[in-house]
Write a structure and sequence with these properties.
Layout (H helix, E strand, L loop, with lengths): L13 H11 L2 H13 L3 E9 L6 E6 L10 H13 L4 E4 L13 H7 L8 E3 L3 H7 L8 H14 L2 E3 L3 E6 L2 E6 L9 H5 L6 E6 L14 E4 L8 E2 L3 E2 L13 E5 L3 E5 L17 E9 L1
Parallel strand pairs: 1-14, 2-3, 3-4, 4-5, 7-8, 8-9, 9-13
Antiparallel strand pairs: 2-14, 6-7, 10-11, 12-13
Helix pairs in contact: 3-4
InterPro entries: Calcineurin-like_PHP, Metallo-depent_PP-like, Metallophosphoesterase_sf, TAT_signal
Keywords: Hydrolase, Metal-binding
Pfam families: Metallophos
């Protein structure tokens, strides 16, 4: 059973989803397999952004919202990893929500696949709200912190540096910060950005809802969490976006405080229902250039 993860907005239940589609007269297409097919067919999205302080161009692969668990298996993760490696990025960034398993669930198959990610500047990630559910925090389980620490260690053994309110200088001209999950973690934006020292700055945040509360200008923020709504309908857009700001940060290029550019990925996995509609899973390749 999928644990009751916390979020800013109610999750779309199977019953609500089907009722909405029936009312709009499009349930036949989705139930006929179109939605299921779209859920497991991903694309590579290529974006370019200037970054102040960057000395030379950099290519970063961004993968988020994998949701390994009942609806996403190792075959999907393996395909995403192979696609990311084929892009030959300088840096791999992971945006959280890796796990959709209960406390004590086995993450070994997921980590075996993620350990194959390759980039000369390293692989970095942040935690998401479903990860905290998998630690047991959303269950008020007293052992959740020990499980988080153990997963932190296992990710490190797989070659992935998890950033929780901290950052790293990944290149002489580039600082990467990572903030803890907004709704289920203990986020500290100032700590995440401390150490930039005038370098070009990237910030990883699973949830884009922190964008209005940035303490100062950031070069670029990368987020996931929303899945782009996961189910989108012609002319109407997403049925549900797990955000306090509605459609404002649903997907794509958006803007935070201090005119900070941000990119919100539709993510790769699914949650709640194994369906997507007009919202293809994405692996994002960002080419960052001096601004």
């Amino acid at each position: 059973m999928t644990p009751p993860f916390a979020s800013h907005a109610p999750r779309l239940t199977r019953r609500q989803f089907l009722r909405g589609l029936l009312g709009l007269g499009v349930s036949g297409a989705v139930l006929g397999g179109a939605g299921a097919a779209q859920a497991y067919r991903f694309g590579v999205i290529r974006e370019q952004q200037g970054l102040r302080g960057l000395a030379t161009p950099l290519r970063a692969a961004f993968l988020t919202d994998l949701h390994y668990g009942p609806l996403i298996g190792t075959g999907s993760v393996r395909a995403w990893v192979q696609a990311a490696n084929a892009l030959r990025p300088d840096l791999v960034l992971l945006g959280g929500d890796y796990l959709d398993v209960g406390p004590g669930g086995d993450a070994t198959p997921l980590l075996r696949e993620l350990a194959r990610l390759r980039a000369p500047l390293g692989v970095y990630g942040v935690w998401g709200n479903h990860d905290y559910g998998s630690f047991g925090r959303s269950w008020a389980d007293p052992g959740w912190m020990s499980r988080r620490d153990e997963l932190h260690r296992l990710f490190a053994e797989a070659g992935i540096t998890m950033l929780r309110n901290e950052g790293r200088v990944v290149r002489d001209d580039l600082y990467l910060g990572g903030v803890d999950d907004l709704t289920t973690g203990d986020p500290d934006l100032l700590a995440s950005l401390r150490g930039a020292d005038g370098r070009a700055t990237l910030l990883l945040s699973h949830n884009p809802d922190l964008l209005p509360d940035l303490p100062g200008p950031v070069g670029l923020v990368l987020s996931g969490h929303t899945h782009g709504g996961q189910i989108r309908l012609p002319w109407l857009g997403a049925l549900v976006v797990p955000s306090s700001y509605g459609q404002r940060y649903a997907m794509g290029w958006v803007q935070g405080a201090f005119e900070t550019p941000a990119y919100v990925s539709r993510g790769l996995g699914v949650t709640g229902v194994p369906l997507r509609m007009l919202c293809e899973p994405e692996l994002t390749l960002l080419t960052l250039t001096p601004a």
